[in-house]
Amino acid sequence: MNKGLKIALVTARFCALGLVCYAISKMNVERRHQVTCAGVKVEFADGFNFVTAEDIEGYLKKEYGTYVGQRLDSLDLAKVEKILAGKGAILKTDAYTTPDGYLNVKVYQREPVVRFQKGNTGFYADEKGFIFPLQNNYTSRVPIVDGAVPLSVTADYKGEVKTPQEKLWLSRVIAMVAYMDGSKVWAENISQITVEPDGDLVMVPREGKEVFIFGQPTEIAAKFEKMGKYYTAIVPDKGEGHYSTVNVKYKDQIVCRK
Q1: Containing structural domain, residue 46
Q2: Calpha distance 13→19 (Å, rounded)
Q3: What is the pLDDT of residue 244?
Q4: Structural domain total, the chain
């Protein structure tokens, strides 16, 4: 077989393969034109339970409109993602369709690092300082900061806090709880953090009668180090419960009061 004939045969084979692929692709497109949406399948990318599959279906039914029975290729996937991304506890979603006739939604939920309780108003913040409301379905086990919380947030608010002062304070609190979580000791042993009217944070340990006056959420490592020294140097000498308050907010000082 001469070289020219070989080239012609190879070219013919590639052309035939291309025609087959084109035919299959065209069949798939035509099938998508015919397939209608049978429903939605929801997948969660994390272990949180702030929203449920039923919630997702409810959001779409209310804000998207009818999608079941609609042609699969007519669904507005960007609109689906935009609707769901507007829910406070949802970080993002990926929406796509599959040949079996279903709208699929993969949900990524926000991960809270701290919960605030300001009177009757409660809300979470994630590590980036995004505020979102408490959810009826699920309560996350994160540190709780209550009392005179200096954030102007309503119960249904979601988004970043507005003023530079609030952003700074929130970022410092997030850094503080991250330090506590990293230490393990303080995350397990501090049961309550309260903001006093003067802005001081007061920490209540799970055991013992004393409370710690932490002051502003600044110089975090140094203050926790002084709290540790109280337990290792003062308690062995004075005994547990000898003092009612331990003030660590002043530089290089531990002020104990009965």
Answers
A1: 39-109
A2: 10
A3: 93
A4: 3
Closest-CA residue to 173 (of 80, 165, 99, 207) = 165
What are 159-201's pLDDT values in tens digits?
999 999 999 999 999 999 999 999 988 988 999 999 999 999 9
**pLDDT-flagged residues of the chain (< 50):** 10, 19-23, 25-29, 32
Same domain, 53 and 70: yes
Co-location of 71 and 140 in the same domain:
no
pLDDT for res 151: 96
Tokens 């099938």 correspond to 31
The pLDDT, as a whole number, for residue 230 is 94
**What per-residue confidence (pLDDT) applies to 23?**
42
51 and 158, same domain (yes or no): no
Same domain, 103 and 117: no
Distance CA 68, CA 39 (A): 5
